[in-house]
């Protein structure tokens, strides 16, 4: 059978152990999962209420996602034609890659950053140009310089996963001004709802001025709907139109569309999660300073802490105490852990467990 060369070289995504697997293996009754940046508070109660009323399971979803699209239109005060819905923002990344990348093109991104940009670019056969982060920040000037006549897409992640560092308005505008109109800039804002930085930009305003900009956001993080798989892209209508042909007709399912639309209407839940998250981050920062640990200042719902020792060993030690984090080994930071900010109680338990491990 013919398999594309570049696909043969890729390794499939390796999911972490499930909570039940870890419980069974270690004989623990309680597990705190802080590995995937899920919302520790779950989702808005409105979601459950909405889904109770759904029973049309035999019917295909609304391929245009009109209910969700209208909710997005209301919230952001943009036109319905400015959104493309995806089965997670992962799928929006895939659609962009499918529409714009092939073996005659290259694509520019930071490293380390969210791995799906590279993964999809490789599948499409495009050349990948990776520009190292500087202190957890995108090196936007170097990224702009890396763009050449064959560049089709530039990926920018802000706040960046796994470092949590966001980009300032001044830096982002300076960058966008250097990128030719013919090159797409993808601004991945999976953690947008958590950002508190005062120098953060208003990406929806930027879309008005830059026809080559698409912003991606998701219901998987602050909205607490990772299990439903819904994300979206926002751009000028012409750009969205050019992507629509690669979208599968029923890519977001009926339950997911309704759940997301209901969740959007509960902005007070999002605000609560944002505030709690900031309190948790500040607790982590104080702890790190007290214990002499370095970290990147995070605008997401996670923090990358540098331990100066093997991350896999720390990961194992924390798992034995019932806390699942993400080892930096596979993320480009072999001596760091990426830890999702849990509830206040989970943060306290995590910090206690870390202090016990590192003071041994
Ligand atoms: C979690 C995450 C996504 C993927 O979100 P889904 O909508 O669940 O596919 C995209 N980008 C970044 C940076 C993420 O951390």
UniProtKB/TrEMBL annotation:
<comment type="subunit">
    <text>Homodimer.</text>
</comment>
<dbReference type="InterPro" id="IPR005861">
    <property type="entry name" value="HisP_aminotrans"/>
</dbReference>
<feature type="domain" description="Aminotransferase class I/classII large">
    <location>
        <begin position="30"/>
        <end position="354"/>
    </location>
</feature>
<comment type="similarity">
    <text>Belongs to the class-II pyridoxal-phosphate-dependent aminotransferase family. Histidinol-phosphate aminotransferase subfamily.</text>
</comment>
<keyword id="KW-0808">Transferase</keyword>
<dbReference type="InterPro" id="IPR004839">
    <property type="entry name" value="Aminotransferase_I/II_large"/>
</dbReference>
<dbReference type="InterPro" id="IPR001917">
    <property type="entry name" value="Aminotrans_II_pyridoxalP_BS"/>
</dbReference>
<feature type="modified residue" description="N6-(pyridoxal phosphate)lysine">
    <location>
        <position position="221"/>
    </location>
</feature>
<protein>
    <recommendedName>
        <fullName>Histidinol-phosphate aminotransferase</fullName>
        <ecNumber>2.6.1.9</ecNumber>
    </recommendedName>
</protein>
<dbReference type="Pfam" id="PF00155">
    <property type="entry name" value="Aminotran_1_2"/>
</dbReference>
<keyword id="KW-0368">Histidine biosynthesis</keyword>
<dbReference type="InterPro" id="IPR050106">
    <property type="entry name" value="HistidinolP_aminotransfase"/>
</dbReference>
<comment type="pathway">
    <text>Amino-acid biosynthesis; L-histidine biosynthesis; L-histidine from 5-phospho-alpha-D-ribose 1-diphosphate: step 7/9.</text>
</comment>
<dbReference type="InterPro" id="IPR015421">
    <property type="entry name" value="PyrdxlP-dep_Trfase_major"/>
</dbReference>
<keyword id="KW-0032">Aminotransferase</keyword>
<dbReference type="InterPro" id="IPR015424">
    <property type="entry name" value="PyrdxlP-dep_Trfase"/>
</dbReference>
<keyword id="KW-0663">Pyridoxal phosphate</keyword>
<dbReference type="GO" id="GO:0030170">
    <property type="term" value="F:pyridoxal phosphate binding"/>
</dbReference>
<dbReference type="GO" id="GO:0000105">
    <property type="term" value="P:L-histidine biosynthetic process"/>
</dbReference>
<keyword id="KW-0028">Amino-acid biosynthesis</keyword>
<dbReference type="GO" id="GO:0004400">
    <property type="term" value="F:histidinol-phosphate transaminase activity"/>
</dbReference>
<dbReference type="InterPro" id="IPR015422">
    <property type="entry name" value="PyrdxlP-dep_Trfase_small"/>
</dbReference>
């Amino acid at each position: 059978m013919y398999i594309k060369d570049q696909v043969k070289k890729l390794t499939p995504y390796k999911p972490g152990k499930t909570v039940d697997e870890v419980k069974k293996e270690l004989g623990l009754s309680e597990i705190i999962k802080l590995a995937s940046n899920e919302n520790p508070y779950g989702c808005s109660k409105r979601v459950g209420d909405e889904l109770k009323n759904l029973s049309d399971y035999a019917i295909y979803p609304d391929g245009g996602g009109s209910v969700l699209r209208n909710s997005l239109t209301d919230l952001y005060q943009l036109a319905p034609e400015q959104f493309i819905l995806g089965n997670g923002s992962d799928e929006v990344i895939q659609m962009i890659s499918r529409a714009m990348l092939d073996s005659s093109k290259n694509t520019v991104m930071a490293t380390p950053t969210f791995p799906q940009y590279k993964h999809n670019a490789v599948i499409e056969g495009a050349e990948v140009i990776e520009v190292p982060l500087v202190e957890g920040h995108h090196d936007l000037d170097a990224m702009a310089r890396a763009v050449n006549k064959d560049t089709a897409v530039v990926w920018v992640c802000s706040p960046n996963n796994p470092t949590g560092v966001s980009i300032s308005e001044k830096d982002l505008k300076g960058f966008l001004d250097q990128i030719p109109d013919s090159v797409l800039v993808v601004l991945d804002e999976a953690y947008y709802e958590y950002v508190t930085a005062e120098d953060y930009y208003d990406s929806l305003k930027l879309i008005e001025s830059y026809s080559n900009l698409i912003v991606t956001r998701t219901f998987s993080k602050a909205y607490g709907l990772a299990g439903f798989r819904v994300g979206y892209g926002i751009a000028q209508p012409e750009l969205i139109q050019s992507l629509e042909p690669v979208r599968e007709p029923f890519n977001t399912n009926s339950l997911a569309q309704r759940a997301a639309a209901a969740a959007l209407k509960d902005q007070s839940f999002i605000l609560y999660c944002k505030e709690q998250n900031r309190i948790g981050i500040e607790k982590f920062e104080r702890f790190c300073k007290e214990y002499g640990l370095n970290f990147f200042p995070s605008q997401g719902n996670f923090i990358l802490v540098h331990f100066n020792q093997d991350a896999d060993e720390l990961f194992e030690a924390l798992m034995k105490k019932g806390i699942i984090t993400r080892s930096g080994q596979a993320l480009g930071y072999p001596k760091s852990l990426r830890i999702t900010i849990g509830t206040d109680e989970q943060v306290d338990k995590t910090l206690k467990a870390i202090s016990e491990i590192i003071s041994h």
